[in-house]
Amino acid sequence: MSTHTFVTDEIRLPRWRQWLARGLEMIIGAILLLAGLLKAWEPMDFVRQITDYKIITAPGIVKPLAWAMIALECGLGAALIAGYRRRQVLPLAMGLFVVFLGAVGWAWVSGATADCGCFGSWAKRTPAEAFAEDLLMLAALVVAWFIYRVETPRFHRMRFGVVCLAMLAGLSLTGWASRSVRQSTDPVTRLQAQAQNPVSNLNITGLAVDLKTGTHLIMLMDTGCAHCQASVPAFNQLLTQQQSTSPLIALCSNMEAEVTMFKKNFQAQFPLGRISREDFMRLLERGDTPRTLLVKDGVIRKIWDGNAPQETEIGQALAAN
Questions:
Q1: pLDDT in tens, 85-116
Q2: Are 224 and 254 in contact (CB under 8 A)?
Q3: How many whole angstroms separate alpha carbon 316 and alpha carbon 303?
Q4: 119 SS3 class
Q5: Residue extent(s) of CATH 3.40.30.10 domains in the chain
Q6: What's the CA gap between 167 and 76, in Å, rounded?
Q7: According to the model, what pLDDT value does residue 13 have?
Q8: From CA 29, how far away is CA 80, in angstroms rounded?
């Protein structure tokens, strides 16, 4: 029998080929299905992660694309697990991983994003890590394709039903999760959903400041973050501009020695306090460092991610509140 032809007689090839091929398919299928469901649980995170690649950024395209990708990953994952239409599903899955490799390869080379978004916001993977993993999974599918080219006609309708149910589950979960306040595109809304005043009871080491009263600018940063380091001059300038109206403080979760070294190496003039890692990640949630929070009387009024806000932006936010 030619190894380049699919057949329907399962006994023509050694059983070990079937077990190896189906084992590889089921593992890759489970990974795809899990990835699709995790994205469906936090769909707006996935939309943002697609946008971060800077390949497709139009909101009218990105959101439908995110929904389609969730349905495709769930459907393909279920099809690989169930062994449904292997002749068509295996090449389709391989094509999907080629697309993944192109996208994460672009992100790796261009530095467009630090998180591939392969598992939504549940697992952080760098583009380099994702590229290696996707390449390995593509190789596994190619092996499965070549060592066992047998189509299984039995239980065809049942397998098709499993695929349809997986796609429906992914889309239904996406629709339900999209209505959650935690999936809001507004970071202030997301933080207020965690607690009414999430900054009021922070335990800050190294600074004596009362965030419950008055107006403050709080910068969340990491001393090892290259973007935070490069942003020091802008925040030093902001400190001077806002000293009388909304004093600037910075908060991090680094060790005291790291804070001292940071201030010395980068001439940070702003006060820098330390909070617990748990509080830091809660306030950062899915934002980018440096994250700047405008707080008035303990209530977050505005959030800026990635760059220092302009003086005019702060003035407009204060006037609106």
A1: 888 999 999 999 999 999 888 888 887 776 66
A2: yes
A3: 13
A4: strand
A5: 188-320
A6: 9
A7: 65
A8: 5
Whether the bond into 290 is cis, omega within 30 of 0:
yes
In whole angstroms, what is the distance from residue 116 CA to residue 105 CA? 10
Check: CB of residue 167 under 8 Å from CB of residue 32.
no
Q: Which residues pair with 274 in a beta bridge?
A: 205, 252
DSSP reduced 3-state for 118: strand
Residue 91 has which token pair? 């090449």
What values do phi and psi take at 273, rounded to 5?
A: -105, 170
CA distance 279 to 150: 54
Strand partners, 305: 291
Question: Which homologous superfamily does the CATH classification assign to the domain defined by 188-320?
Answer: Glutaredoxin (3.40.30.10)
Residue 78's contacts (CB-CB under 8 Å, 6 or more residues apart) are 29, 33, 84, 162, 163, 165, 166, 167
Q: Is residue 298 predicted with pLDDT exceeding 90?
A: no
Assess contact for 170 and 40: CB atoms under 8 A. yes
Give the CA count within 13 Å in the CB-facing half-sphere of 138: 16
Residue in 92, 87, 111 with CA at minimum distance from that of residue 28: 92
- Asked if residues 293 and 300 have their Cβ atoms less than 8 Å apart, the reply is yes
Would you give the distance in Å from CA 122 to the centre of its chain?
A: 7
